[in-house]
Design brief:
By secondary structure, this protein is of the alpha/beta class. It has 7 helices and 13 strands. The chain binds S-adenosylmethionine (SAM).
C-alpha cells in the first residue's frame, strides 16, 4: 500500500518542543548540530513540509519473517508452528500430498469444527487442524509406529488431539471435517466407510495423475467441490 510521507525540518529546540507537545511517534531522518529532519505519515497544520514522498508501507507479515539461528527458530506470532520429529512415520510436510491437505484445511476448516484425520502418520494434519481452531481432533492410523509418532508430536506441540490405532470401519461417529491422505488403492477399499464419517466437508489426497483422478471421481459418484493440483498430485474436496 502506498502512503504519503511528509518530511519536516525544525530547529533542535522547536523539534523537542514539538515532540513534547504532540506526543506522537516520528521518524528522525537526520540530526544536525542545530536542526532535526523528521518524517510523519500525516501533514502538520501550520508547518510546510520540505518534501513529500510516496512510500510503500510493508505489512508486518512481509517485514517480520521467521529467523533461524543455529538450532533456534524465532517465529512471528501470526504463524502457527507445527513441530514434527523426523521419525518412522509419513508426514513431514515435504510431500505434495501433505501440502495439498495443509492448504485445503486452511481453505475449508472452520473454527470449532470436529476433525477426523484418517492415516495420520506423524499426526501433521491433525496437529495443523487443532492449530487452525478445530475443537476436537481424532487421528487414526493402522500402523502402530505412526500412532507412537503422532503421540510424540502431540506432546511436542502441547495440543490436545486423540491418536488411535484404528481403521475407518472402527469409527462409529461423524465429524464435521474428514481429511484422508491415502492412496487410490486404499480409497478403493475404504471409500464407503470414509463417506459415513463426515457431515460437512471431506478432503482427500494421495491421488496421482489425471487417470487416477478420473478413477477416484468415478468412485466418489459425486461432483467435487474443489480439485487442487500440486506437482502432479491432486487434492479433492467434497461436501456431505
Ligand atoms: C501418505 S501417509 C499420510 C500421512 C499424513 N497424514 C500426511 O498427510 O502427511 C498415509 C498413512 O495412512 C495409513 N493408512 C494406510 N491404510 C490405512 C487405513 N486403511 N486406515 C487408516 N490408516 C491407513 C498409513 O499407515 C500411513 O501412515
Amino acid at each position: 500500500m502506498l502512503y504519503k510521507k511528509y518530511i519536516y525540518k525544525l530547529s533542535t529546540e522547536d523539534f523537542y518542543d514539538f515532540i513534547v507537545e504532540h506526543k506522537e511517534g516520528v521518524e528522525i531522518l537526520s540530526e544536525g548540530e542545530s536542526f532535526v529532519e523528521f518524517a510523519l505519515y500525516r501533514p502538520l497544520e501550520g508547518l510546510e513540509p520540505i518534501g513529500v514522498l510516496e512510500v510503500e508501507v510493508i505489512p508486518p507479515e512481509r517485514a517480520f519473517k521467521p529467523v533461524k539461528v543455529k538450532s533456534l527458530m524465532v517465529l512471528p506470532s501470526w504463524l502457527k508452528p507445527v513441530v514434527i520429529r523426523q521419525g518412522c512415520a509419513f508426514g513431514t510436510g515435504l510431500h505434495p500430498t501433505t501440502r495439498l491437505c495443509l492448504e485445503l484445511l486452511q481453505d475449508f476448516l472452520k473454527e470449532g469444527w470436529s476433525v477426523l484425520d484418517v492415516g495420520t502418520g506423524t499426526g501433521i494434519l491433525a496437529l495443523a487442524s487443532k492449530k487452525l481452531g478445530a475443537k476436537r481432533v481424532l487421528a487414526i492410523d493402522v500402523d502402530p509406529q505412526a500412532i507412537e509418532e503422532c503421540q510424540h508430536n502431540k506432546e511436542e506441540n502441547c495440543v490436545d488431539i486423540e491418536c488411535l490405532k484404528a481403521e475407518p470401519k472402527d469409527i462409529k461417529e461423524s465429524f464435521d471435517l474428514l481429511v484422508a491422505n491415502l492412496e487410490l488403492r486404499i480409497f478403493k477399499k475404504e471409500l464407503d466407510n470414509l463417506l459415513k464419517l463426515f457431515n460437512k466437508i471431506a478432503i482427500f489426497s494421495g491421488i496421482y495423475g489425471k487417470e487416477e483422478l478420473l478413477e477416484f471421481i468415478k468412485l466418489l459418484q459425486r461432483k467435487p467441490l474443489k480439485v487442487k493440483r500440486l506437482e502432479g498430485w491432486y487434492g479433492i474436496v467434497i461436501k456431505a
